[in-house]
Amino acid sequence: MNIDVTKIFISSSSQQTLQSLRERIKSALENTGHETVMYEYGDMGLYTNDPNQDCLDRVKDSDVLVLFISNRAGSLSRSNPNITITYAEFITALMNDKIVIPVVETQILTFYKEHIKDELDRAINKFEEEHDHEPRYTYPIVKALLDKHKSKNTVFHNKIKGMSVDDFIWAFVHDCYKMTRWTYNYNIADTPDLCNFLLKVLSQVLRKSTKFYLHEKEITQNLMLYDELSVYQDSVSNFMKCIKNSTLNLPLFFKTLTLYLPSQSIYDPYSDFAEHPKPIVNISECKAITLYKRNNDVLTLVDSYGCNTPTLEFEKEDKHSFVAQTYNKDMKHQEHIFYSEDKQMIYLTKKVGELVLSCHFQLSEVWSSRRVNSYENDIVSAIMEKRQPFDFAIDLLGGMLNE
Predict the structure, then answer these.
(1) Helix, strand, or coil here: 341?
(2) Which candidate, 64, 66, 12, places its Cα nearest to that of 40?
(3) What does the alpha-carbon distance between residue 73 and residue 100 come to, in Å, rounded to a whole number?
């Protein structure tokens, strides 16, 4: 008979002072019938060359993440210097609706509440006011605060350093305190009592039956590459149909291009850790396209698609024109975005020799220009998801319309 037991992932930095605790906790949990997953015991079942990703996969496959935070942060992620590997496990658990039980060293959590929390909250609020969105990561805000104290408040700076706590820990504790329903503090050195305390907490949390399901991603890298190649071959065929008698049929070309600029979404920085991420904002499919060409000191409309009243021309030096700004920038190998708050419209522009192409997209929410600018790279990446068809279209456009 198969018994459905609770699978618990034990997470912490790999510092030596926590090793005995991890072993005692593992033994205590298993003696009460739970299944534990811990890196150093080979519980991970590592089958790939990416142990960090293997850890995150095991977090997704667990029911509960028990997290211990002491004074050492551990290794920063190679792919993201704003988080540690342990923090990635924490976020992965949250993003996949796992039960997260953080236990922070008592003196660290007490110091955070008394000396850091309020000032860090104010710094985060200031960031939100200046950038019109929450900071993606807490660690850079903490580093800026500590650097400020180092030069302006040496007494407090020395007090923080006297705690012998890695800077990242303050960011980690802050996010635990904000993101979880509970954050416990305990004298981590008192292992036997902590084991008993943790078992009581688990008993309370698991009193109501909770079941989690891991939704496996079954699409392999080879299939993804095959799909990309199929899309590219299909796009080449469709764009070539726009050429009639050695002339590019622009209305048909624009209509075809919109097929490869579908609606997209922008996600928060933790979306990679979630099975079902929620978008910050949605971007519509390409609503309209305009094409301009330089004629002396004027950029003249060549043709348009989806625009009822496109502007017929812009002065080349018009500093208020997205088209003129694009033409005057050195943008041969990149796209740029502009935003109209009034129209709630994103304009992705591309210079192609003497031509300027502008593709128009609607945002699902009213954003400020400042906020759009802060997400510029994310927006361009989302729109340019089908990169190869777009690049082929640009090459075809430039080759046939530039003299």
Answers:
(1) coil
(2) 12
(3) 18
Domain ranges for the chain: 7-205, 221-401
Query: Tens of pLDDT along 343-378?
Result: 999 999 999 999 999 999 999 999 999 999 888 888
3-class SS of residue 38 = coil
> Domain 7-205, CATH 3.40.50.10140 — does that match?
yes
Length of the chain measured in residues: 403
- Cβ atoms 398, 352 nearer than 8 A: yes
- Find all residues with CB under 8 Å of 65, minimum gap 6, and list them: 8, 9, 11, 59, 89, 90, 93, 98, 99, 100, 101
Bridging pattern class, strands 35-37 and 64-69? unpaired
pTM above 0.70, yes or no: no
Residue 346 CA to residue 363 CA, distance in Å, equals: 7
DSSP notation for 41-74? GTTT---SS-HHHHHHHHHHT-SEEEEEE-S---
The CATH classification number of 221-401 equals: 3.30.450
Contacts of the segment 71-75: beta carbons below 8 A, 24+ positions apart: 71/15, 71/105, 71/108, 71/163, 71/164, 71/165, 71/166, 71/169, 72/13, 72/15, 72/17, 72/166, 72/169, 73/13, 73/166, 73/167, 73/168, 73/169, 73/172, 74/13, 74/14, 74/15, 75/14
Mean pLDDT of the chain: 85
C-alpha to C-alpha distance for 47 and 54, rounded to whole angstroms: 8
Cβ atoms < 10 Å from Cβ of 237: 9
Minimal CA–CA distance to 313: which of 337, 297, 289, 333?
297
